[in-house]
Write a structure and sequence with these properties.
This protein has 3 helices and 10 strands, in the order E-H-H-E-E-E-E-E-H-E-E-E-E. The chain is mostly beta strands. The chain has a single domain, classed as Deoxyuridine 5'-Triphosphate Nucleotidohydrolase, Chain A, CATH 2.70.40.
């Protein structure tokens, strides 16, 4: 039987949590954006994986609004991007993680798919869709929620 684990338990499993006070909730943990890539070229996928070629991407660099700012902002225009998170969740055979867009990301007109994942690391780049109006995201913005189920 599967059961959700508490936000505190998830926080203990995560590596690179930025601020437990702001990120940890009763049943989930907010995830923060580390890097954003613009999708620039077509990928190739085949049945066996021997001919797989990832799509071309370009790292988007955040820009500081003033020199004394500690963090910069990404100004994203309409299109698809790939996001990496600061937090890492090691793989365990008895758990699965549910990744969903944060309510504020949705309120900003953007979204990413809800995913079931075994682990969360820098190899997992989550597709992010930005509408025509665009969006500004600050470095380390909380854009996703992570729930973990054990069975």
């Amino acid at each position: 039987m599967a059961e959700f684990v508490s936000g505190e338990q998830i926080a203990r499993m995560l590596q690179s949590l930025i601020s437990a006070k702001k990120q940890v909730h009763e049943w989930w943990v907010d995830l923060t954006v580390a890097r954003i890539y613009r999708v620039k070229g077509m990928a190739s996928l085949d049945f066996g994986g021997g001919e797989f070629q990832p799509g071309k991407t370009e790292l988007c660099l955040p820009i500081k609004r003033s020199p004394e700012d500690a963090y910069g902002w990404w100004e994203l225009h309409e299109g698809y991007y790939l996001v990496e998170f600061n937090e890492n969740l090691p793989s365990r055979s008895n758990q699965v993680a549910l990744l969903q867009p944060h309510a504020r990301l949705l309120a900003g007109g953007c979204f990413h798919p809800t995913l079931l994942v075994q682990e969360l690391n820098s190899e997992l780049r989550v597709p992010l869709w930005v509408p025509k109006i665009g969006i500004q995201l600050k470095e380390n913005a909380r854009i996703s929620r992570l729930w973990v189920m054990r069975f």
